[in-house]
Amino acid sequence: MSKQIVAGNWKMNLDLNEANQLLQDLIKLEKKFNSNAEVVICPSAPYLSAFAEQLKDHSWIKLGAQNAYFVDSGAYTGEISPLQLKSIGIDYCLVGHSERRDNFDENYEMLAKKSKALINHDVAPIFCCGEQLQVRNSNVYREFVMKQIEDSLFSLSAEEIAKCVIAYEPIWAIGTGKTATADQAQEIHNLIRARLSSQFGENVAKEVSILYGGSCKPENAQELFSQADIDGGLIGGASLKADDFCAISNSF
Ligand code: PEP
């Protein structure tokens, strides 16, 4: 059975004091968070190590990184390796967020290597996919998203892909306030699950959590999360408010 997950992508927001405050606000809400959902936060990289220490007594919050490179160590100034992430207790890492694909030219091949390297170090990739508005309007969005997944994840074994989380994030919905309807999201989630099933088998397809991302908030999370193939959300803006993030976790 796939896990229910709410993952917060803090992006490049918050200075250290603000980030610590948000972490404390979340910790205080422990009893109010849905205990059936895995709660993941992905703060900026400079805070990960200190947060990992603080969360030792609050292990119900899991930590995710926003990016990693695909080799263990070496002359790659400015990069962070999966091995380093694991060494400080990181459980998840975003891979291929549309902002990284667009701003840093991350391509399908690179994302395949990143996903594989993370799995090798037991860090679960949260693999992001999703189409631009013009792709949605041109009606080839289904093929587009399938290709993103096939080209970056289908070189993994069944055992490896079972460790991945997939986040469907239509780019036209990210940070725009324009959410995909529950039907639009479910259509793609269902296609992703069916494609995983035909490639890796039904049992593996049922294991993979498929999250929706794109202007998900307390007001629309319940409808989205009630869809058969939506296992939770990757939350940007609303994850910066502890109460909203908590309310989203209670929307299953
Ligand atoms: C995101 O960037 O992953 C995201 C889903 O952002 P937002 O919730 O702000 O649309």
In short, what is this structure?
The chain is α/β, with parallel strands linked by helices.
Overview of the molecule:
Helix content is 43%, strand content 16%. Helix 2 (48-54) links the parallel strand 2 (37-42) and strand 3 (61-65). Helix 7 (141-153) packs across helix 9 (182-200) and helix 11 runs parallel beside helix 12. The longest helix has 19 residues, at 182-200. The model has no long low-confidence stretch (mean pLDDT 97). It has an eight-stranded parallel β-barrel, surrounded by six helices. The protein is built from twelve helices and eight strands. The chain is an alpha/beta fold. It has helices at 16-28, 48-54, 82-87, 98-103, 108-120, 133-137, 141-153, 158-161, 182-200, 202-207, 218-225, 242-249, and strands at 4-9, 37-42, 61-65, 92-95, 124-129, 165-168, 209-213, 232-235. Phosphoenolpyruvate is lined by residues 9, 169, 174-175, 213-216, 234-238.
Question: What is the element layout, followed by pairings?
Answer:
Elements (H helix, E strand, L loop, with lengths): L3 E6 L6 H13 L8 E6 L5 H7 L6 E5 L16 H6 L4 E4 L2 H6 L4 H13 L3 E6 L3 H5 L3 H13 L4 H4 L3 E4 L13 H19 L1 H6 L1 E5 L4 H8 L6 E4 L6 H8 L3
Parallel strand pairs: 1-2, 1-8, 2-3, 3-4, 4-5, 5-6, 6-7, 7-8
Bound molecules: phosphoenolpyruvate (PEP).
